[in-house]
Specification:
Blueprint (H helix, E strand, L loop, with lengths): L3 H38 L6 H8 L3 H4 L6 H30 L9 H8 L4 H6 L5 H4 L5 H18 L1 H8 L15 H22 L15 H10 L5 H22 L10 H16 L7
Amino acid sequence: MTGTSGTRTGTAPAGRGRRERLRAETTAEIKDTALRLMASGGPDAITLRAIAREMGMTANAIYGYFATRDDLVTRLIDDVYSALADAVEAAWADATAESPAEVSAEGPAEAWADATAQSPAEASAATPAESPAEGPAEDPAARILAWARAFRAWALANPEGFRLVYGDPVPGYKAPEEGPAPDAARRVCTGLAGLAAAAWPYAEPLYRDSAFTWDDFDAGLLDKVRPAFPELPPAGVALALRLWGHLHGLVALEVYGHLGRQTTSPDKLFQEELTRLLTTLGVPKSGG
């Protein structure tokens, strides 16, 4: 038998669910609108009043979702940076799963930790045929290529997000003390270090005379990299930054439209750059 109190009890969760769903949909629309405004007017265009006007909301109503413009920008950066981290980690995991080596597919850091049985110096002393089995991946080229291609694909599919994370600062924006997206930054940073770790058993002989020491790097960077890759020496961390420069440089030129004025084949340029990069590192060609 259903009484008044029973009816009220039964409908309240459904009402809350509807309100929560509508709030989530409005929040998502606010963020999408902010990115559209940035695409058309640059980072200056991200203001709560402009977003409210675009959505047909009152300025006061939008403050119920984001107390300040900086709160919105922090949320946007965290969202897009996390999406990038998801994309490159998924690419790494897929390449790991497809490799003949039974290596952990959790990500670059886990794959290195699970599979490394020797130090980089010991691995480099092995013959090229022996090194992959002792390194982070039996097919390191496949994993490096997968990560790099996923990074470019995400950036081209999400140019406003790329610009927000890596390019155009939002004027006057003050990030939280720990940064706008600390977890995503750690994941992408360790992913890049994972590329260097995958290449290191082959590249180490090229860097034996490196003058890099731990003092040459930011402490925050080392806090992310060293626990994940304890076998990677300072020269290996420098290699990660070099790899980042190769990947980020071409992708940024493409996202900002500069390559389109110079070549009709930016994809070919990127693919050949990756192939040459692997060659200079001594990483054997992928069997996949």
